[in-house]
Amino acid sequence: MVGMKKWDTFSIVNYVFLTLFCLLTLYPIIYVIAGSFNEGNDYMRGGVYFFPRVFSLASYEIVFNDDRLYTGFFISISRTVIGTVTSVLFTAMVAYAMSRKTLMGRNAYYWLNLMTLFFSGGLIPYFLVLKNLHLLDSFLVYIIPTLFSVFNMIIFQGFFREIPEELHESATVDGAGDFRIFLQLFIPLSMPVLATVGMWNAVWHWNSFFDAMLFTNSEKLMPLQLYLMKLIKEADVLTATSKYVPPQAMKNFSVQTVRMAAIVVSTVPILCIYPFMQRYFVTGIMVGSLKG
After folding, report:
1. Which residue numbers in the chain have pLDDT < 70?
2. Residue 269, helix vs strand vs coil
3. Which pLDDT belongs to residue 82?
4. Measured distance CA(129)–CA(171) in Å, rounded
5. What angle in degrees, to the nearest 10, is found between the helix axes of 67-99 and 106-115?
6. Is residue 137 within 8 Å of residue 221, measured between CB atoms?
């Protein structure tokens, strides 16, 4: 009975703590959503915490009438899809080669790759390399530099090593080459880790803005997060967006409500996709822990 009472007390405390933690996590989202749907002048009075006091869609009209939003969506979606697929396949291919004991110079390649995790040439040499490769102010600057990740390669390599060698030998006896073995044998068997690393890459590409800020100048290459950052940091959002609405409608929104509307619009896509990818993430982590 004593043990049962302690367990009940622990359960109650645990559930209370998790509930409070969940509310603390959700409240900033609720606060931003409520502010984005509130009328601008009324929001400036304060006191809008959970629900909009005076409902208005004016801030969303401003955001959706801004052409930079659609350009940012297109660039972000394009770099997320293309960058994720190419990075996962290229990194997995390198990891497959590194997992083969017959690869000549495998240890040297491994330590050279591992050294790049601890030492870097710095931002200026990196910029000069991209400049000499003619990648500046180009969409490829989002794709080519991210094709290979040493960290992800190590994860793939550890997973590939756990695949029974007998499967590889059997495929080799049947006349399959390395490319065919990689594509038709290793890739199907590695879907959990592929989905996990793919989700990491997709979230990174979707949230990335620093590379666009440094290596591109054209607004046609501006991803959604860079557009959002500029909108949040603009000294006078109303000046930048007033051309999209008539003067009589200016009172329906404010700098803060427009910023909140932009945050909501940019966050909704990843919030919709993440729950469907979460199960792959959990599966990949569980498989990795079991195989470790």
Report:
1. 1-7, 234-253, 276-292
2. helix
3. 93
4. 41
5. 150
6. yes
Q: How is residue 183 annotated by DSSP?
A: I
pLDDT of residue 282: 57
279's torsion region: left (phi>0), alpha (psi -120 to 50) or beta?
Answer: alpha
Map out the domains of the chain as residue ranges: 1-65+245-275, 66-233
Cα–Cα distance measured from residue 12 to residue 18, given in angstroms and rounded to the nearest whole number: 10
- Please tell me the total number of residues recorded for the chain in this structure: 292
The full DSSP string for 72-137 is: HHHHHHHHHHHHHHHHHHHHHHHHHHHH-TTSTTHHHHHHHHHHTTT----HHHHHHHHHHTT-TT
pTM, entire model: 0.75
Query: Domain 66-233 is in which class?
Result: mainly alpha
The per-residue pLDDT for 288 is 46
